[in-house]
Amino acid sequence: MEKWLLWTLLLITFSRTMALTENHEEENKERQLLPTQSLYKDLHRKVFLFPASSADSYVTLSPLKNTELQNFTVCLWTYTELTRGYSVFSYATQASTNEILLFRDSVGQYSLTVGSEEVTFQVQEPSFTPINICATWASASGVAEIWVDGIPLVRKVLKQGYTLSANAMIILGQDQDSYGGGFDINQSFVGEIGNVYMWDYVVPFHEGKTDCSQANVLNWKKMKYEKMGHVIMVPQLRD
Ligand SMILES: *[C@@H]1O[C@H](CO)[C@@H](O)[C@H](O)[C@H]1NC(C)=O
Ligand SMILES: *[C@@H]1O[C@H](CO)[C@@H](O)[C@H](O)[C@H]1NC(C)=O
Q: Which of 21, 85, 87, 239 is the most buried (most CB within 10 A)?
């Protein structure tokens, strides 16, 4: 728990320092990648509130890059009272609607699906407290990690050698059973989600410092999103 706090603090300090030291070349590259920069918002200290189960409330997130992936890390903050299963993060491509799916099966069990293959992770979850969850996967080894509040769960191996297709549809609040649709009310998220970050590489959490400002696929401080149905953006009240 303490380690996790330190991690968060480091992360904040780092993102400030990085913002100052980032060279102009990087900035120019970024501008070319983001021609419609005004649509990208800094969601720092904000979260999406999903007030009720539904099959039509969700948020789509536009990735900063639409390339194929051989490695990834995704992190989110969730705060929920749900005991049933729900989708945490749904990343679909034309090749597979479960290209990446992070799912909370039940209290104490998460599953990670990559390219339609699923592995499960057991965790002792504290009830009714926010959770910081990160998932990583590396094609070369197939190794998948899930970190809950800074603690690594028992690693699993899947889809060694696989490449995730480009042009993902990324959705919070619902599980996609088709590209951008096929939602099931009984897998919808109810509660609060924020701090969504995704990298196209495996972040070495064990090395202790994580720089969220470097998140190059999804970045909560540079986010383009679309809300559908009943979803409200509110200030984050808890860490
Ligand atoms: C994925 O990670 C491995 C190991 O770090 C690296 O060798 C490989 O180049 C990475 N693939 C891509 C597409 O970045
Ligand atoms: C959702 O779950 C409820 C209660 O278990 C069930 O009655 C209903 O048929 C389910 N709906 C769908 C779309 O699966």
A: 87
Gap between the Cα atoms of 87 and 186, Å rounded: 10
**Cα distance between residue 150 and residue 140, in whole Å:** 24
Amino acid type, 48: F
Query: Among residues 203, 212, 178, which one has the least CA distance to residue 90?
Result: 178
pTM across the whole model: 0.85
84 touches ligand 2 (CB under 6 Å): no
Q: Which H or E run includes 120?
A: strand 117-122
Secondary-structure class of domain 37-235 per CATH:
mainly beta
Ligand closest in space to the Cα of 182:
2
pLDDT of the residue at 145:
98
When pLDDT is cut at 50, 70 and 90, the band that residue 26 belongs to is very low
